[in-house]
Sequence to fold (326 residues):
Amino acid sequence: MHNFCTQRKGTTVNAIQLRRCSVFVAILWLAAASVLASAAAMETFDSPPDPAKWTLSGSAAWDSTTQSIFLITAGQYNSGGSIFLSQKLSAEKFTVSFDFWIGGGNGADGMTFAWVRGPTLLGIGGGHLGFYGGLDGYGVKFDTYSGGGVEPENYVAIIEGSQSPTSTGFVHNSGIPEMEDVLDAAGKPAPFHVRIELDNGFLQVWMSNPTAATPMPETQVLDYEIAGYTAYDAHFGFTAGTGGLTNTHRVDNVMVLAGRPTAVIAPDGSLTWGDFGSGQYTVQYTDDLVNIPWQDVAGTWPSANTYWLGEDISLVRQRFYRVMSQ
Ligand SMILES: [Ca+2]
Ligand SMILES: [Ca+2]
Fold:
């Protein structure tokens, strides 16, 4: 049988985990996967964050009333707070989603979602948003206060730690709804929902606010390629800052899907891959990576350790498979 493994090593397939090449080759690409069994984080913060999993710094604290993380609260002046996953994940390709709410104070400064090299996990407070002046990596900022110059008053931007805190980063969007003190029809806080996808420097950000009195439908607010982006292992998390003005900055319902896949195909044909918490998977195959489109393998795949051999799959020839979360 054609030994595709040897042929392709060192080329594009090299980036993907390959196992057991003598009989067949399986390419397992996970939309979000795991070097570690718990590489994905799905966190509601309905109970205090596990200190082994999350690192809180500065003013950040769990709030039992809202069952979320207060990065910082209104009335805490000239401060910064952050929460990061203690364990690093690959920042080559990831999907992250979360809810945030900013308000309850007198108006500054904003927050970030960030993926940073560490070991420092909190920058300077105030207009530095707990990000600039200490963190080594990239972020998306939700900035609610203009420090003057080119800075708008209410905008999102893709940023990097060495930039000026009053710059608008690589790209920004000030055409978004007001982010402070957004309430639902009953006058209760209406958090924004954010989804961020990165694929080797291509970064896309969507925002929505379905419960706001004036709902915001899901809208792509940023779409940008970071020139020269080089993937690195990163702590994923959030920062916020207040200065002479303050606000509560709250984050909740965090989902992080990142990392490289691990996959092992046992001699009996069973497949084990890293469970990243999806609860549902799609399996596809092709016989030719270049010329034949991926085709669905019939069936539902409700667990991360679904058997590879079964009524629907027969590995009798060379074929490429990939497994993706839904
Ligand atoms: Ca919660
Ligand atoms: Ca600002």
